[in-house]
Amino acid sequence: MIPEKDFSNHKNFPGTRGNPFDFILHWLKDYERTSLIVFILTLIVLTAIGTIFSLIHQSFTRSLILFGIILIDWNLVAWLPHTSRSFGPAKPAVLQLAIARCFFALIPFPLWLFVLVQLMGTAAVIYGFWIEPFQLKITRMTLKTPKLQKGTSLEILHLSDLHFERHTIRETRLLQKVKDLKPDLILFSGDILNLSYLHDKEAWQGARTIFRQLSAPLGVYLVTGSPAVDLEEIIPDLLADLPVHLLKDEAVTIPVGNDQLTLVGTYCSHHPFTDGPKLEEVTQTIEDKDSFRIFLYHTPDLAPVAARLGYDLQLSGHTHGGQVRLPFYGALFTGSLYGKQFESGLYQMDNMKLYITRGIGMEGAGAPRVRFLCPPEIILWKISSNEE
Fold first, then answer.
1. 51, 202, 256, 291: which could join 62 in a potential S-S bond, CB 3.0 to 4.6 Å?
2. From residue 371, how far is each of 71, 154, 324, 348 by CA, in Å?
């Protein structure tokens, strides 16, 4: 159990404008406007730094190899939009890759090992940018509860973090999987558009097309995500006339055969000290106190509160599982106020289960459109009575 924390004196909050991560992402996005000459000179300087500890007779050779491999990275990233796979700026991603390569280049490997390590990096770039972001996985979870009558069961599909830019093979696979799974209920936990495309009408229409094709007998419900992504001024137009139900600080009762469950969805400000009391207020309005309760909320950071209030299941996203994970360490960054305590997957919070999905899309702005050891996922929950 992860204990509830007081963040009222916290200064920076994930998912909001102006925090350090947001500043870096938008600075990197603006970096795309750097002139070609300045950018190439930057890469040359980084190459020189990366080979500074090389033996004099090998320094020039290593510099040429390193610079050539960085140029390969540039081509690999720059071609992504032309193949309709992802649509982020190239220069910020190449700059970050160059810095990472130079870090490894500083290690005094023998020349053959230096080349091998850099080629392994190229393989990782190909996999992380071109392959894994489109390997949409289905995670199947089961939950048995005494709060449902004998013989009652339903399947709930949890989606999150679409971060739509343009239609890619990932969205095609998403729609096909949803169609094949035929869930009883679909729940979406926020972040519809990519940060780079918040005011892009083509992205709006593409996202609307996705939601228009989502259907389930018990309905499609969603909550908004980070306030820096799901902008309050655009959400009404973005969702207008779509067959979805937007939950904003409210509870709804959903019939399941001769039984029912309670679904609660609240607005995410990323301020637990304001969102927590709102959840408490909504919880007090629940008529059937003994019903099975699902809490739909963008970030996992209210899980300790939801567990205290007696919820049975919380479905959240936001962290993307880190998007880039390392073996034995996990996510490099989660975007949670609880840090690495909330990364992705299943957590037991007293009597409540929390599932943090890795999401579908990728962040946007100056963040690389990359996933590594963290493929996108959708989660199919089978919830049933614990009585045979």
1. 51
2. 21, 32, 5, 26
